[in-house]
Specification:
The complex is a heterodimer. Chain A is an alpha/beta fold. Chain A has 2 domains: 172 residues, D-Maltodextrin-Binding Protein, domain 2, CATH 3.40.190.10; 150 residues, D-Maltodextrin-Binding Protein, domain 2 (3-Layer(aba) Sandwich). Chain A has 16 helices and 9 strands. In chain A, strands 1, 2, 3, 4, 5, 6, 7, 8 and 9 form a 9-stranded mixed sheet that branches. Chain A is globular. By secondary structure, chain B is mainly alpha-helical. Chain B has 2 domains: 36 residues; 218 residues, MetI-like fold (Orthogonal Bundle), CATH 1.10.3720.10. In chain B, 75% of the residues lie in helices and 0% in strands. Chain B is flat and about 65 Å long. The chains are: A alpha/beta, B mainly alpha. The interface between A and B is medium-sized, with 30 and 25 residues.
Chain lengths: 355, 296
Amino acid sequence: MKNEKTSSKPFIALVMGGIALSLSSYGAAAQQTLTVVSFGGAYQEGQSKALFQPAAKALGITVKEETYSSIADLRLKVKAGAVTWDVVASGSGSAARAGTEGIIEKLDYKVIDTKDFLPNLAGDYCVGGDVFSTVLAWNTKTFGDNGPKSWADFWDVKKFPGKRAYRKGVAGALEPALMADGVPADKVYEVLSAPGGIERAIKKIKELKPHVAVWWTSGAQHAQLMKDGEVDMITGWNGRFDVVAKDGAKVAYTFNQALLDYDCFAVPKGAPNKDLAMKFLAEISKPQYQAEFTKYITYGPTNKKAYDLGTIDAAYAKKLPSYPDNAATQLTINLDWYIKFEAQAAAAYENMLSE
Amino acid sequence: MSHVAGPNAYNLRRDALIERLALFSLTGPALLLVATVMLVPVGWLFWLSFLNDAGGLSPEHYLRMLSQPSYERAFRATFEISFTTTAICILLGYPLAYVLSQLPRRAANICMIAVMLPFWTSLLVRTYAWLVLLQRQGIINTWGIKLGLWDAPLALVHNLNGTLIGMVHIMLPFLVLPVYASMRAIDPDYLKAAANLGASPTRAFWLVFLPLSLPGLLAGALIVFILCLGFYVTPAVLGGGKITMVANRIATDIELFFNWGAASSLGVVLFILTVMILYVASRLVRLERLLGGGDA
């Protein structure tokens, strides 16, 4: 008992000291805190080291990082009126839909400078942070040097016999089918928007369905499928294949006819520090931050000036999805189409899958 | 009774009531827990399923299920897979439990640990372990081809086969345990009496042992079936995207619509269908006796 009494004094002192300390740091620096949320893992680690913390230092603020799993989490927060996040990382499609739903703010492009951005990578609600591609990849053990080169080859099971894997979700699934069906890349969304376009793509996928061994649902999964040699040809995100190739997986991919897409940053409706969030986004959109981020994963910068700084190794730059030569052979995802048609297309896709 | 001060009926009844309330209050913490972490969120999700995006009352989430055939297929697949898993579990589990029940207690306990062991391993780990075993260049296919048992890799996983293998593996202990308990409770004298009356061992099994073990079997089968209805991880990992059970569809809808109402409407329908099945089952067999355990 006696011991307890005496030991409580240092404890109280500690608490008082802690309070004093936190008060003083408030008063002296008056540092503002911005809460940034992303998807965790190696991706957020790269973002943290290349973007968030250096930008915080440059702006003289504190950045608090959190992780979340999907926009559904944000939707709940906004609906409940309990928004604690200032900046959220998101997929471009999710952010576009969240924008039409009214749960994220319009971005202030008077503050955020995107004049050096690649085309279509900054939307009303979401500014692009990195560029990735949905590519055609193949097992180099199965096909050697004569791998498939186009979506038509992906569909050609006579010339390229072997098991396929394709995405279980509709995002990025219809465009390759139309290109395989002979639609030129620049006409894909035109066809998809016209009546019967979605059905045409789905019919083409149905053709391939008996040869699809796995319908993948995540980046980790499609990378693992190639590492295990479970399938011979697959669609997926380029960065993931690079990671497993480094691990010894027999996989190669092409940017030809790939789908160029981007991850982006948005500001939730009712964010506590909206103005500061805009300044923060302006900062991390600068080329030097974007160049730094490529060191952590083979996702390209959205700001094309990042290539001119000389900080990205020339050979390495050629591997990035937004490298001008690579970008030229790709089809950029059309978010307006997804906002209008995704629900309808997803329903048709699910029906095709469940048949 | 004589030492009680005022031994009238009123006092006794009051004491009994107080005692019963005191006893009931022991369930307080559990009731509170169930109410706060079960009833409130589930009730809230139920309510959300009747709201549209704008927050108004609307049956749109339920109408969507009727208008798109993929939903009906997901429900059909859920019940078919659950039924098949239960059937396989019965075929594998009943003989196993029978053998165990005939062993001496000590040996049976050791075997029981073997049955329970996978039960104590994470479901996720076991599911991924099956993936490693069953895939195209997995252990089973590699060795099967090496030993000349088959020429081309068998399609063991990323389909219905893999899903069923994984689910049966996970659910088997849930069947074996109640069946074993009910078999142990059968008085061996009944079988001796049957033999004494001229029944062959086979006849004694069919006419005496099986009917007596049936309540345990039905209880086990029911538990397996109902747990199967909610499976998510196993079909997602071992089904190769071809197996869509209701739980998988709920996940898809959450991603697609960002909408808890759309997803919870699926849960509501699954719940109602499950209750209906329980009701039908209870008409067929006396449910309260099943849930009371195998004390036939």
